[in-house]
Amino acid sequence: MPGAIPNPLRSELDRRLPRIAGPSVLVLFGVTGDLARKKLLPAIYDLANRGLLPPGFGLVGFARRDWEDQDFAAQAHEAVREHARTPFREDVWRQLSEGVRFVSGELNDDAAFDELARTVRALDADRGTGGNYAFYLSLPPKLFPTVVKQLKRSNLAESEDGAWRRVIIEKPFGHDLESARELNAVVDDVFPPQSVFRIDHYLGKETVQNIMALRFANTLFEPLWNRNYVDHVQITMAEDIGVGGRAGYYDGIGAARDVIQNHLLQLLALVAMEEPVTFSADSIRTEKQKVLEAVELPEDLATGTARGQYAAGWQGGMYVPGYLEEEGIPANSITETYAALKLGVNSRRWAGVPFYLRTGKRLGRRVTEVALVFQRAPHQVFSSVDVEDLGQNSLVLRIQPDEGVTLRFGSKVPGASMEVRDVTMDFAYGQSFTEASPEAYERLILDVLIGDPPLFPRQEEVELSWQILDPIEEYWAKEGRPEQYEAGTWGPQSGHELLARDGRQWRRP
Amino acid sequence: MTLYLPRTTTSQISEALTAERHSVGGGALNMVLTLIVVTDEADHYDAVRAATEAGREHPSRILALIRRDPDAEPAIDAEIRRPGTAGPGEALLLRLYGPLGDHPGSVVTPLLVPDAPVVAWWPGIGPANPSADPVGRLAHRRITDALRAADPVADLLNRIRNYQPGDTDLTWTRLTPWRSLLASTMDQPCGWVNGAEVTAEPRYPSADLLVAWLADQLEVRVERTTSNGPGITGARLVTEQGDINLQRYDGRVATLTRPNQPDQTVALARRRPAEALAEELRRLDADEIYERTAKFMAAMLDRTEEPV
Question: ipTM greater than 0.90, yes or no?
Answer without folding.
Answer: no
